[in-house]
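As a warm-up, study this chain.
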Amino acid sequence: MKLAELEAKMEAILFTMGEAVELERLAAATEQDEDTCRKVLRSMMDNYTAEDRGIQIIELDGAFQMCTKAEMYESIVRIAHVPKKHVLTDVLLETLSIIAYKQPITKVEIEHIRGVKSDHSVNKLVEYNLVCEVGRLDAPGKPILFATTEEFLRNFGIESLEDLPVINPEKIEDFKLEAEEEIQLELDIEI
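Now compare it with the structure written out below.
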């Protein structure tokens, strides 16, 4: 198969699917090995990054997706009249951070970490497609387990969860000390 023909097939698949497609599936669909597909995709990615192109191919956790370049967003909004972007409040970001670092996790575990009910924030994150249900915990009541989605990776510009920033252990200790001081301050006020 000629290179141009293979690129055309991959381009058509990625365009039509509209979501991330695993390398294994692309290889099967084009009847090529994964290494060949990966090399061709990398070449296509380089070609699409040229400034005169409005689309790009991105890699998300071992899968590839064709999407619009971020700098084209305003032009698209003018024609599509897309409603405003979702706003991630501090509460939503806090809840999303807990899920991202502790996944899969239940609402009860999230609430234990946050110290407050988290139904609304988890539901909003599910509505925004940043979090989804990934199963149930094998425990009484079979609580739902939540994890981040491909949309989360896409929105935060990371390829996989391994790219999440590592939290400095010293910073964690500082957070614990701050929390303990706040609790002591609240106890002193009550007395």
